[in-house]
Specification:
The protein has 120 residues and is an all-alpha fold. The protein is built from five helices and no strands.
Length: 120
């Protein structure tokens, strides 16, 4: 029993350390439209809690563009790699998407944002 308590504490500490290693400022421009906590309520864009690993167009409370709904219907899943491509050129990846922000061309800025969205 004691082993499991120690293991749980170490696991929680590693998650906290990972969160602290991310540049949380990378998410600042996204805050106007997106949230990282479920209690933040609905914003103009979809909720991003747990986005990595969930289906594209996977927030049931958000009305996605036909392009993203088609990607979901095709079975696309948000991976780090897919999100990196999406953030780098949203329109090229899913033409007709509704995300209003410009592409994030800087690879380091995308890596920082991906860290915040789902860990390094």
């Amino acid at each position: 029993m004691r082993f499991w308590i120690v293991a749980a504490v170490l696991f929680a500490a590693s998650g906290a350390a990972r969160a602290q290693s991310c540049n949380v400022q990378a998410f600042e421009p996204c805050k106007a439209c997106h949230a990282l906590t479920r209690d933040a309520g609905q914003k103009p864009g979809p909720q991003l809690v747990g986005v990595i690993g969930r289906p594209v167009a996977g927030d049931p409370a958000f009305d996605y563009s036909p392009a993203l709904r088609a990607a979901r219907d095709k079975g696309d899943i948000w991976t780090r790699e897919r999100l990196d491509l999406f953030l780098g050129d949203t329109e090229a990846m899913y033409p007709g998407g509704w995300m209003g922000s410009p592409p994030i061309r800087d690879a380091k800025a995308r890596a920082d944002l991906l860290c915040v969205l789902g860990g390094p």
